[in-house]
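Trying the structure run again after the queue cleared.
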Amino acid sequence: MMRKAIFTLSLLVVALVGFNSANAQEVEQKDGPKISVDKEVHDYGTIDQGGNGECVFIVTNTGTEPLILSRCKGSCGCTVPTCPQEPIAPGASAKIKVKYDTNRVGPINKSVTITSNAVNEPNKIVRIKGNVKAKPVENSPEK
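Done. Tokens:
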């Protein structure tokens, strides 16, 4: 009988400790800066070689503290993001500009990693995709 009571009491203690730690994690997720983007992927569609390879992602701070974007990094040298340097206030938005080198012909499938102090996603990844079609070869008149 005593063993059963100790076992039941132990289960109750474990359940209460587990509930409190889960509750504490939930509170942590509510406070602090949170990152949200207007789109996960920018699709260029088909663009011409040498065409405009710029796009914009809108980042919004949906949290309670200023959001600081510490780094924006493209997956290769052909994808160059520009992050705002100023903290983003709660409820405010900012633009991340991404420039893709459209002199490279073929499919586009690249990513940009946004590193921040966000409590929900400290490393947010957005993507760009599309296809760069080659310029038609001009035939020079023969003399």
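The chain is about 20% helix and 40% strand. Worth checking whether this holds up in the mutant runs.
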